[in-house]
Amino acid sequence: MKAVSTQRSAFSSKKLKFCSLLTVHYSLIAVYCLLFAACFMFVSCGKKTPPTLKAYEKPLAPAALKAIHREDRIILSWSYSSKKENLKEFHILRAEDSSFQKIAVVSKDTNTYIDVNFKIGIPYKYKVVAVSLKKVISEDSNIIEIKPESVPLAPKNISFNVGNDSLHLSWDSAGENILYNVYRTAEKGKYSINPVNKEALTASKYSDNLEGSPVYYTIRSLLSKEFRSEGQASVEITVDPSSFTPSKPEGFQTVVADDRVVISWKENPEMWVTKYRIYDKVNEKDGFKLVKESVTPAFTLREETGMKHIFRVTAIGPVKESEPSEMITVDF
To answer: What pLDDT does residue 52 have?
Structure first.
C-alpha cells in the first residue's frame, strides 16, 4: 500500500508540473498572438498620431476682397496668402442691410465667385470667410460694398495705328462721363479680370507697348463710380505684327571712291524693322535685281569703272516689305 501511495504522489507531482508547463506555454502563445495582432494593425492601418492643437487653429482670413459689376453679374475676387493644408472651403456672405447671409460655398482652390442674383440700384455688402477641415471659421475678410447701376453701351468703331515703337488704339465716345477699360490677351477670347490701364480712361484712346507676336484687345465702358460697373465688351480686334508694313527708306547719301561706292540712308523709325534689301538695275532688260541684304542702313559696292548702276532700297518688317525707295544712280 505504501508503494502505491508513493507512486500516486509521484504521478500527481508530474501532472502538476505538466499542467504548469502547459499553462506557461499557452500564456506565451497568447502573448505572441497579441504581438502579432498589434503588428498587423500597425502594418494595416499605419501609425496613428493623436490630433494636435494646430488642426484646431483658426485659419487666416481672406484678404483684398474686390467686387466688379459687369453686365448681368457681380464678380468677387480675393486673395489667401496662407498655406491650405488644413483649409476646407470658403463661405461667401452677402447683406442687403446689416444682416449677412451665406449665399455660397466654394472650394479652397478658388478665389472668385460670381453673383447673378441681384437687382440694379440696390447696394450690397460682401465678405468672405475661410473654413478649416475641423470646421473652424476664420475672421471676416474686408467688407466690400457695391451698388450695381445700369451699364453703358459697348465702345464702337475701334481702330489702331502703329507708331515707331508703340500701338495707338482709338474708338468712338460712348457718351459724357463715361470711362473706359482696355483689356489685352495673347490668347484669343480669354481675358484677365484686370485691364491693362492702371486707372479708368477718360478719353477714348489708349497707347500700348508694341508686342512681337499677335495680341487681342477689347474695350469696356464703365460708369464714373468708386467701384467698377462695366458694360459689354466691344468687338475684339487683332493686332498682328506680321501684317505691319514699314515706311520706305529715305535720306540717301552716296560716296564714290575709285572702284567702290558707299550708299547710306536714315534708319527707319519703326523699331520692328529687321533689315534692308538693296536692288540694282544695270540695264532695262533685266530690271531691278536683289544684290544685297543689310541689317544696317548702309552698304558698299565694288565695281569696275565705266559702269552705271541704279539702286533702290526697301525696309523689311516681321513679314512685309516696304515700298521701294527713290532711285539712286551711281556712275563708276
So the answer is: 62
